[in-house]
Amino acid sequence: MAELVIDALVENLDKVQDFVHNSIADLNCPKKFIFQLDLVVEEIFVNIAEYAYTPNVGSAKILLDVDVDSKNISMTFIDSGFEYNPLERNDPDINLALEERQIGGLGIFLTKNFVDDISYRYVDGQNILQIKKSVTN
User: Can you give the pTM of this predicted structure?
Assistant: First the structure.
């Protein structure tokens, strides 16, 4: 299992993306998979950076478990910021015209649709968001 602990700052997103790309390099992932995973990582990490510790700065821990044989990944994002479960947010009505939609919520909606499984728990003062994704999807 690979682990990255990094300051939760938006400017560290490239380092997080590099960590993920390096960790999954042996899977030979298709471009669509990489695109979806990049969007998911960006959504989760940027939300931690922008909201978890406001107005302070804290850290984010990313755990990445790659099973090369089954081509499955499990990624866990952990922060000690304000308790927040993004999965409780209502999905946006994507059938409405853009100008009629509420602001926000599209990123987590896409995240939920781009992964095979997503779960959240709050334990010992930590937000723990775990995603699972198979390279075949």
Answer: 0.85
Q: Distance (Å, rounded) from C-alpha 62 to C-alpha 39?
A: 15
Given the structure tokens 């499955």, which residue do they identify?
Answer: 72
26 CB burial (10 A radius; 0-12, 13-18, 19+) = exposed
What single string gives the DSSP state of each residue in 9-48?
-GGGHHHHHHHHHHHTGGG---HHHHHHHHHHHHHHHHHI
Residue stretches of the chain with pLDDT short of 50: 92, 96, 101, 105
Which residues are registered as beta bridge partners of 5? Answer: 61
Backbone angles phi, psi at 125, to 5 degrees: 75, 15
Q: Which residue has the tokens 């909606």?
A: 109
